[in-house]
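queue> holo job accepted (nicotinamide-adenine-dinucleotide)
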Amino acid sequence: MAKPLQIEIHNPNGKYRVISTKPMPGTRWINLLIEQDCRLEVCTQKKTILSVEDIIALIGNKCDGVIGQLTEDWGETLFSALSRAGGKAFSNMAVGYNNVDVNAASKYGVAVGNTPGVLTETTAELAASLSLAAARRIVEADEFMRAGLYDGWLPHLFVGNLLKGQTVGVIGAGRIGSAYARMMILIDLDIAAYGKFLKANGEEPVTWKRATSMDEVLLEADVISLHPILDKTTYHLVNKERLSKMKKEAILINCSRGPVIDEVALVEHLRANPMFRVGLDVFEDEPHMKPGLAEMKNAVIVPHIASASKWTREGMATLAALNVLGKIKGYPVWSNPNSVEAFLDENSPPPAACPSIVNSKAIGLPISKL
Ligand SMILES: NC(=O)c1ccc[n+]([C@@H]2O[C@H](COP(=O)([O-])OP(=O)(O)OC[C@H]3O[C@@H](n4cnc5c(N)ncnc54)[C@H](O)[C@@H]3O)[C@@H](O)[C@H]2O)c1
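queue> job finished
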């Protein structure tokens, strides 16, 4: 028999059994659950990605709700196991939920929570950081310094791209994509007001337009950042053909989900076009990279850290816990999942609502009047 997974138990006599498949940042989420009569079991096993079998073992015979992670495969098998254990609540600690079969969850009446509204700016900031790092070859230059190769200023040393006045393209201009676009204007004003300010200083105004097609973005933009959700329509959205349409010196950023880019085609493209640069937070076969990517000097690669600021990660943990708690308690669903400040204010109790349930309509949950 498989060895049981290590767990940490909070409030052992709590009435509702809630599992978190991972320890999560902060303590507020723990306190909110135990104050509301939950027995919380946090899996502390040193194993980065839990298998379906691991999670079935954690769920056991009685489980009211689970907080899970985007690395886990939440499909028919897990939702039927959760339902058999009497559970009706699951929340991803993420805004994206491409790892969740929402239809399977709905079939068993299980609510599926996610965590929008708390990671938009943090994720956009990483996309902006990768854009600048790729444009100015920061990682290559850092490696060069550490290797002791710097022996004096040279006119050609790590020459990169100037971003001022360049065209930024966003594919998937939702919450994060729009926040990224605002950041790349480098000032948080509306564009018209910023344009007036620039004009008063004798400069060209910044303009924006909604492209009529993806090709228009690919052909015109100097920096392209990908922010769509991952589904059948966005799988390999950036493929060999589309890469070939982009400018030879363009910068491509992906902080959405790895399979949005055909990574094999990307490696080929990077190899053939040394002036084309990419900044990647996510990978097609995470945690692995396609062969050759790690050797490409024109790629800046980071391990899926776009939402990794302390405030955001603690907030995500809180929202995920409150999604599960709210469903257990029979609370309605918050009317605007993008406006979640009331749940994040540490100085007052959170509203009696689930912050964001993606299948609320399918399972007939009422909307909060708060
Ligand atoms: N790297 C990370 O750590 C990290 C963190 C947060 C979110 N994400 C990813 O970013 C994605 C976007 O998050 P969001 O909160 O901005 O979501 P959102 O729903 O607000 O925006 C997604 C946008 O994608 C667009 N879209 C959908 N299908 C498309 C298609 N076929 N072609 C072009 N655009 C399409 C939608 O119209 C929408 O504007 C999430 O789904 C998640 O997968 C990643």
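queue> The chain has a mean pLDDT of 95.
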